[in-house]
Each structure stands twice: as structure tokens, then as C-alpha cells.
Amino acid sequence: MSISSRTSRSVRILGVASATAALALGVAGNAFACSIKDFSAAASCANGKGVITVTDTDASGKEATVSVYLESNGADAKHVGDKTVTGTKAGAIVTFSEDWAPGAQYRVHINANKGQVNDDISLLMTPSKACATSETTPPASGTPTPSAPATPPSSATPSDTPSASAGTTAPATTGDNSPSPAAGTSNLAETGASSSTPMIAGIAGGLVVIGGAAVFFGMRRRGASKSN
User: 98 lies in a domain?
Assistant: First the structure.
């Protein structure tokens, strides 16, 4: 049975259309497939502390596992951590807290789409300047009070400073209003001299005279009585 030219032409057109559709689907599939090129990493600072951020721009929304390692001499020296991320066209970001040192190298590994992507991002190099802490010392609440200056030592020599006993003389305290004894007199002279001494001596002399007269007249009277 022979195929007519019209049928042959229709089959040929259908084949070309099918191939074109398959090619378009393949290109579209490749356009939405997850790739290592959809991932990028950067080292930066947040609130004065180091962080490593990984961005996933996979528009197909495949879930990926991100692993970060500190490198030293071409080997993994430290496992920083693992996190999962689901890509978006705008870019989904995962952050790792890491106190990185300036000029350090980190390896960022991506495992996505059930192992379809299992590769490293290009080696990450940290900045040459470390993060500056954002914590500052609070200012003092009040103005500090200045300390009192030390008292300078006296420049006067012992010979220049008069003694307490030589500089002042305590006033004499007496029980009456009699004048103070002259300086230099002894205590004995002070007790024997007084303004009333002459009067007392006069009274005593008078009493002695009266007593003597009484004795004299008494003796005369006794003699006269014996003569009688």
C-alpha cells in the first residue's frame, strides 16, 4: 500500500512540530533547572560580628543544603555548619554566624535537587579588615569630683614656730580682787604679803599692849592687898 504525497507531507510536518516542541521543552527545562551558578556566598559584618551569607537564586524552588567549612592549607579545618534553603528568583538568603579572621578562606558546598547539584561555590575569601565591635563604653553619668589637693608641708622651721608655752601665759586666777603678784616672786612671798597685813599687825600690837597693861595692874593690885 503506497502512501500518498499528501499523507507523507502531513507526517513530515507532524514530526517537525514534535521535534520543535521537544526542543522547546528541553530548553525550558534547562532554564528552570537548579545549577551551582544559582548560588553565591559573601563574608560581611552584622552588629560588629562576622557572618557568612549564602544566596540561592534558583527560580525552580528546589531545596538545597548549604555546608560551610573553614579552609587551612587546602583542607577543611573547621565545620562552620549546615543549613537548608529554598531558592527564589529574587534570592533566598541563609546566614552563618562566624567570627572570621581577615584574609581567611571558606569552602561553601551545595547539595540540591536530590544530588543533581553537588558542588562547591568558588572559594570564599574574607575581607582584609576585621569587624569592629558595635558595643561602646557608656559615658559616665556624672562629672567626677576632683580630689582635694594635698596640703603642702609648712615651710617654717621649728625655730620659727613659737612654742605654745612661750607664746601665751595663762592669767592667774585668784579668789579675790587683789592684784596679781609681781612676776618673779616666789610662792612663799605671795602667801605672806597682803594688803590687810598692816591692819592685822596693828590690831595684834594693840591687843599685846592691852594685855600687858592688864597684867601690870593686876600685879599692883595683888601687891597692895598683901601689904594691908
Answer: yes
How many folded domains does the chain comprise? Answer: 1
Q: Is residue 64 part of a domain?
A: yes
Alpha helices in 5-108 (DSSP H): 5-32
97 in a domain, yes or no?
yes
User: 195: buried, middle or exposed (CB in 10 Å: 19+, 13-18, 0-12)?
Assistant: exposed
Domain that holds residue 104: 36-125
Report the CATH number that the domain containing residue 103 is assigned in CATH: 2.60.40.10
pLDDT in tens, 99-122: 999 999 999 999 998 888 999 999
Dump the DSSP string for 141-202.
SSPPPPPPPPPPPP---TTTSPPHHHH--PPP--SSSPPPPPTT--HHHHHH--TTHHHHHH
DSSP for residue 25: H
d(CA 88, CA 95): 16
pTM above 0.90, yes or no: no
Is the sign of the CA dihedral 218, 222, 223, 228 positive or negative?
A: positive
